[in-house]
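#onboarding

Welcome to the new folks! Below is a worked example of what a typical request in this channel looks like: someone posts a single protein sequence, and someone else replies with the predicted structure as tokens. Don't worry about understanding the tokens yet, we'll cover that in week two.

Example request:
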Amino acid sequence: MFATCKLMKVNPHPEVRQILTDILINSKRVYTYDSWLVPSEGATTELRLYNREVQSTGLGRLAELFYDYMIPLKKISETGPEIETVHEPVACGPVYVHLFEKEPLDVFVGILAGNKIALKLASVLSDVLGRKMGHSTSPLKPIAFLIEKKQQEIRNIRDFSEVVELIVEDIGDQYVDWAWMKGALLDQSDEFRKFVESPSGGKVTVLAVRFRDRTYYIYKDSRIFTRNADVSSVAKLINEMQWFFDMGRLLHDAGAITS
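Example response:
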């Protein structure tokens, strides 16, 4: 199965970190993060975040979250033969968020979602904290994987057996603007030397490596993706978090993570 984990950094401010931690480690709690006003009806709908369940893991705590969002629906008007648009709240989830409590990632969370959902959840959490603290704040900070700057250090990580795929952008060639390359021992190929290491080489934005007989894709926007995961149950999902943690730890130790 496919699985994506996006790493984000926890705001180090003590009060912000404490409130965020309370939200992520306490189950069966609901938090209002926004409201939706329907002018035609003069009614307001609260949009809420719900922490349904929390699991302890060997790495920290895994929270199962849901959040409301409004979707437009078409319906036949009751007052006439017209089609009108109404908005209804729908729960998005579950979205799993792992609060790491083990070094060196104890200042990070891992959100098991693609970039769009992960950033939306971070925005929802920000709104929840804003209501609690009385002012705007961001409990989760975006980070980056320094794929371009630290590519040699990443390729030299002992547990990464080989580079098998990469995307290179901004190539200084009049015929080639970007390249998507796949193959065994890719970083030892002529194409790698031409499109990455030569003076006209571009910027590596995605790097795929073999790690313990699996292929993991490392994106510069702090996502780690694999097609080899098993997330068919919460127990297996927790096992997958160990893989993502180990990947993050190796990147951290290689100096390839920055805020």
